[in-house]
Amino acid sequence: MIYRNFQDLKLSALGMGAMRLPGLDIPRLLDLYNEHSFTGGGFIAPMALMAVPEEKHPSACIGCRSCEKVCPQQIKISEAMADFARKMGA
Question: pTM for the whole thing?
Fold first, then answer.
């Protein structure tokens, strides 16, 4: 899913606050992805990810889509994580 603007993805990430599956902090990663995508890169997301264990990075998403099955906004999270990982050079 392509978001038209920062606010669309930000609201989606915030709406998923209760959705915590084992492994990745999806709302936080979507927030960082959002920031990185809509600011044209920068240093905030890379710096924030430095404080996160490697097994919790977007590149750790295995694409099982179990998060998408319970996402109330029907976000294609696996695609966002793959794009984020690519943008982070993983």
Answer: 0.75
Neighbours of 87 (CB within 10 A): 15
CA distance 59 to 22: 15
Supply the mean pLDDT for the chain. 81
| Phi–psi pair at 56, nearest 5 degrees | -115, 5
Whole-Å CA distances, 82 to 18, 76, 85: 22, 10, 5
Q: Domain locations in the chain?
A: 6-87
Question: Tokens representing 56?
Answer: 């919790």
CA atoms within 13 A on the CB side of 63: 6
